[in-house]
C-alpha cells in the first residue's frame, strides 16, 4: 500500500482531517445506522486487531461490535494479558501483530505523541482509539453525529465543554472538528484543569455562561491523571463545575446534555441528570457503533 493510501485509510486525529472527509464518514455512519441487517459481511476477509494499552469499555466494545457487524475477523489484545507485562514495547507488540497478517489496527495508548511515529513505521492502517490527552477522533465523530442528529446542522451551534480540559483528548478532537463546521466552542474549567495552549481556539467562560449553549458537554474528572492537590474535593468540584439537578433544570429545553463517559456520578454530573430527557449520553454510545463501522470500512474497503 502506498504511503498516501495508508494515510487516507488511517485515522490518527481530526486536527488534520478535512471537513469533507469528516462529512463523508458521518454520511456513511448514517447509512450504517439505517441498515436493518445486523451483520453485513463486507469485511469478512479482513483481520483487525484491537490493541488497548489503556483501559476502555465503550471504545473497545463498540469497535468490536462495529467490526463484527461488518463481518471482520477480530483479534483482541489487552496489555494486561500480553507480553507487555514482560517488558515488550508498544512498537514490538504492534509489529508482531502486523507480521502475523492483520489488515488494520485499532490502538489506544497512554502516552501522547508516539502514535504518529508508530504509524509511520507500519504498513497497515492505524485507527486512534485515544492517545494520552492528544486526540480521540472516533469519540468526536460520534459526538458530531449525535449533535447533527439533534440540531440538523453543526454550523452556528454553541458547544460548551466543561471540566478537565487539560487531560481531555475528547475536548481536543471535538474542538478541532467542531471549528471546521463553524460551531463555536467555549471551555469552562477551574484554572488547574485549563489548557493554556488551546486558548487561541476557545474562550474560557463562567459556568453561568457555559450553561447558555446549545450543547453542554461535561467531561470526566480524570482522577487517575491528576497530581495530588489539583482537586480539593469532589463536593467542591460538583458545587462549582458540576451539572447539578438545579443547574440542569435551568437549561433551555433545547439544550443537549452530553458526556463521553465513563461518568463520575455526582461529581461532574448528578445521578438524576445522566439519564434525564435532555441527556444524550447513552445515545452517544449507540451512535459510536455506526460511526466506527464507517471508520473501519474506510480503513479496509
Ligand atoms: N468514552 C470513552 O472513550 O470511553 P472508554 O474509555 O470506556 O472507551
From TrEMBL:
Residues 9-148 form the Aspartate/ornithine carbamoyltransferase carbamoyl-P binding domain. Pathway: Pyrimidine metabolism; UMP biosynthesis via de novo pathway; (S)-dihydroorotate from bicarbonate: step 2/3. L-aspartate binds at residues 86, 169, 220. Carbamoyl phosphate binds at residues 58-59, 108, 136, 139, 261-262. It comes from the Bacteria. Residues 155-297 form the Aspartate/ornithine carbamoyltransferase Asp/Orn-binding domain. The keyword Transferase applies. One of its GO terms (molecular function) is aspartate carbamoyltransferase activity. Heterododecamer (2C3:3R2) of six catalytic PyrB chains organized as two trimers (C3), and six regulatory PyrI chains organized as three dimers (R2). Catalyzes the condensation of carbamoyl phosphate and aspartate to form carbamoyl aspartate and inorganic phosphate, the committed step in the de novo pyrimidine nucleotide biosynthesis pathway. This is Aspartate carbamoyltransferase. It comes from Paenibacillus dendrobii.
Amino acid at each position: 500500500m502506498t504511503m498516501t493510501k495508508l494515510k487516507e485509510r488511517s485515522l490518527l486525529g481530526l486536527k488534520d482531517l478535512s471537513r469533507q472527509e469528516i462529512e463523508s464518514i458521518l454520511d456513511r455512519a448514517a447509512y450504517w445506522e439505517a441498515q436493518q441487517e445486523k451483520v453485513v459481511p463486507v469485511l469478512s476477509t479482513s483481520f483487525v486487531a484491537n490493541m488497548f494499552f489503556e483501559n476502555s469499555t465503550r471504545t473497545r466494545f463498540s469497535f468490536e461490535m462495529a467490526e463484527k457487524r461488518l463481518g471482520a475477523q477480530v483479534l483482541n489484545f489487552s496489555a494486561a494479558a500480553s507480553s507487555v507485562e514482560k517488558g515488550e514495547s508498544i512498537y514490538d507488540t504492534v509489529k508482531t501483530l502486523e507480521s502475523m497478517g492483520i489488515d488494520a489496527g485499532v490502538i489506544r495508548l497512554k502516552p501522547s505523541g508516539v502514535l504518529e511515529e508508530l504509524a509511520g513505521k507500519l504498513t497497515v492502517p492505524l485507527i486512534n482509539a485515544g492517545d494520552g490527552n492528544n486526540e480521540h477522533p472516533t469519540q468526536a465523530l460520534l459526538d458530531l453525529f449525535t449533535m447533527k442528529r439533534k440540531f440538523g446542522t453543526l454550523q452556528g451551534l454553541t458547544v460548551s465543554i466543561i471540566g478537565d480540559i487539560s487531560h481531555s483528548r475528547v475536548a481536543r478532537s471535538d474542538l478541532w472538528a467542531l471549528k471546521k463546521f463553524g460551531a463555536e466552542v467555549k471551555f469552562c474549567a477551574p484554572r488547574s484543569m485549563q489548557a493554556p495552549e488551546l486558548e487561541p481556539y476557545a474562550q474560557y467562560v463562567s459556568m453561568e455562561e457555559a450553561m447558555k449553549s446549545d450543547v453542554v458537554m461535561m467531561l470526566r474528572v480524570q482522577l487517575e491523571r491528576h497530581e495530588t492537590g489539583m482537586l480539593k474535593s469532589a463536593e467542591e468540584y460538583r458545587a462549582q463545575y458540576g451539572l447539578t439537578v438545579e443547574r440542569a433544570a435551568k437549561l433551555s429545553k433545547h439544550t443537549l446534555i452530553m458526556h463521553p463517559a465513563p461518568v463520575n456520578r455526582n461529581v461532574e454530573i448528578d445521578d438524576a441528570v445522566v439519564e434525564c430527557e435532555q441527556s444524550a449520553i447513552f445515545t452517544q454510545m449507540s451512535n459510536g457503533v455506526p460511526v466506527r463501522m464507517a471508520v473501519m470500512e474506510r480503513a479496509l474497503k
